[in-house]
Amino acid sequence: MKRARQKRGFTLVETLIAVAVLAVFSAGAVAISTAALHSKNAREEAGLGQTVASTALMTLADEIRYGRNVREQDGNIVLDSITFGDGVGFVCADGRIVAQSGSTTTELLPDKFYGNLKVSKLELKKASEADSVSITVTVDGTRGEIYTATLTVKAQNGVAVAG
User: Fold this and answer.
1) Which of 11 and 4 is assigned the larger pLDDT?
2) What total of structural domains would you count in the chain?
3) Concatenated DSSP letters for 65-94?
């Protein structure tokens, strides 16, 4: 009498089906994790953009608030600063905010503070409120504009209008 052999293991078809199912689930997991990573990076970048903008606004506000001889000159706000010297205007240069006095430029915030972000717009102008200056800062990230903030600050020594 012959003994029946026992079948053990999987057939080739069963193995191929298992690999195909695993590949489908893996592709789905990769797609979901990639989307989650992009979303996380965008949220982090937006938060950093907000931090850069608010820190720049507060630093500029202090300069204007405590500056001497704050004046509007040729459409720009110029002041005598305790930190940066006399006749200082603030401008956006190479994605950074700098204090400019004549040919001298000094960074408002350390370069490492910005990370991969750039300031694309900085606007300082005399506000409609008496002795006030309006400051607008726009920060760009890797995906374009991510944050814009505006602050109006009252200069303690007033704002003169050049005649």
Assistant:
1) 11
2) 1
3) HH-EEEEEETTEEEEEETTTEEEEEEEEET
